[in-house]
TrEMBL record:
Its EC number is 1.18.1.2. InterPro entries: 4Fe4S_Fe-S-bd, 4Fe4S_Fe_S_CS, FAD/NAD-bd_sf, FAD/NAD-binding_dom, Ferredox_Rdtase, Ferredox_Rdtase_adrenod. The keyword Glycoprotein does not apply. This is ferredoxin--NADP(+) reductase. It catalyses: 2 reduced [2Fe-2S]-[ferredoxin] + NADP(+) + H(+) = 2 oxidized [2Fe-2S]-[ferredoxin] + NADPH. GO terms for molecular function: ferredoxin-NADP+ reductase activity; iron-sulfur cluster binding; metal ion binding. Residues 17-46 form the 4Fe-4S ferredoxin-type domain. Belongs to the ferredoxin--NADP reductase type 1 family. FAD binds at A102, E122, L130, V166, W433, G440, F441, I442. Keywords: FAD, Flavoprotein, Iron, Iron-sulfur, Metal-binding, NADP, Oxidoreductase. NADP(+) binds at N237, G238, N239, V240, R281, R282, E293, G440. It comes from the Bacteria.
Amino acid sequence: MNCIHPTPDEPGFATAEMLYIDPEACVDCGACVTACPVGAIVPHTRLTPEQLPFVALNAAFYPVREGKVPPTSKLAPVPDAPRIDPRPGGPLTVAIVGSGPAAMYAADELLTQRGVRVNVFERLPIPYGLVRAGVAPDHQSTKRVTRLFDRIADRRGFTFYLNVEVGSDITHDELLAHHHAVLYAVGAPNDRRLEIDGMGMAGTGTATEIVAWYNGHPEFARLPVDLGHERVVIIGNGNVALDVARILTTDPDALARTDISDHALAALRGSKVTEVVIAARRGPADSAFTLPELIGLTATCDVVLDAADHERVARDLAEATDPLTRNKLEILSRLGDASAPATRPRIRLAYQLTPRRVLGERRAEGVEFAVTGSADEVVRLDAGLVLTSIGYRGRPVRDLPFDDAGGVVPNDGGRVIDPSTGAPVRGSYVAGWIKRGPTGFIGTNKSCAAQTVHNLVADYNDGLLLDPARDRAKPAALDRLVRSRQPDVVDAAGWKAIDAAEIARGGGQRPRRKFTHAADMLAAAADAPAPPLHERVLAGLRR
Ligand code: NAP
């Protein structure tokens, strides 16, 4: 049933903070509960006390209709799968660069058509991008989407080339010579930097680095994270700031049941942090975090406001008309007071603070803020760790144009565009954060990738994509080239071996104990059993 809104083609989808189930159109079939790849839907009878606010939020989204059948109760229109016109130079072969949600959804969409071949290239020996390295370890249900990705990777026509860096191990032109198209879904791996005095000193860093560190990203395993002080200040109040503050204040024994990296767990066990301040430059009504994440935070952590911010919340609440903002403000208005004694590490949300400089000579000792909107009022907060959390940023992709202001590759519906001529760059496509900027949740990438794939397939059908030369069209030719450049390439069997080894290391107590060094991942991949003889023969015949 078409009972979950807004849908990707309805207004408001791009900025939606959550989706809502229409209680009149829903027939209680439960299909969405089992299908939701991130476990975000549960029957209302199974909501935990902390989740109960979602019942009222969901109901408030739909107007009262006095028994009339809502217009949304029609069967959902099934979006057209991209239909590929077969042609002699086929099958369509696409290289996808990156293996996060946008990449995997693009592969899924392409593989709806028989005969299509998709080769997914990933710089790290392990796949799935921010689902593995970005989603917080205490959000295991969100990470469940990797099961869907594993099923996509198992489909006929899908090949993993992990531990292969496009741009150094293999170039864009080489990929294009072996495929009809190259689709970049490389995300936005840099952070936006805050240019104030003192950033860069010891004791300063970015929230996104901490996220990569606690999630066991191999390039951040040795990040120096000093938790030997009482207060951490995070600048910016988006969902990433909430994630980091939650992890820094959660009981390590609870985190020990997750897949948090061993080095982060050890550091958190020794942590002296008693307060994390999340400092926003604007007021409560402009909080960047989303409502579901705020509800989740207040359900699990002690979150407080000081008296001045309680007053700001009350003022904003008196003026706010938008229901989403009002809901956030109502939750904020019920938070405890910062003057009350703390019984465990807590989070303080602070407002109207524009960062001016990090205090300290050799290492961070605090932050100085100007009170936003006031001519001369200054607030200084002591802190041993100062983190900026002001958003991710796309990085230029070698051989593609780049829009520096937006931090994205210029594109029209996923077709890469040459900004000097406005013409599409043949065979080059983008999806996900490198296409639209770092916003939205995992599911947003599904419709984003589908749009790119539809345009790619239309270009293929219109004869705009060149067939690879005969000697390069066979998978074995690409395989040889990749292995000549990167002998340690990890394939699907290698990933399965890493996955199984990590789960076994968890010992049934944890979902997995992650490898955090590439060498350990490669050693586990090398233990992958050779495929059975009949599969090798079949693979040879297909080639
Ligand atoms: P974000 O939501 O864009 O928040 C950025 C924050 O930085 C805002 O508070 C912004 O304030 C502030 N900021 C920007 N420039 C600043 C400056 N010069 N000085 C001080 N503050 C500054 O970014 P994010 O938290 O990195 O999240 C990125 C995306 O990932 C978002 O779409 C988020 O929802 C998503 N995400 C989702 C989840 C989840 O669903 N669980 C988890 C993590 C991330 P202003 O508003 O004043 O500009």
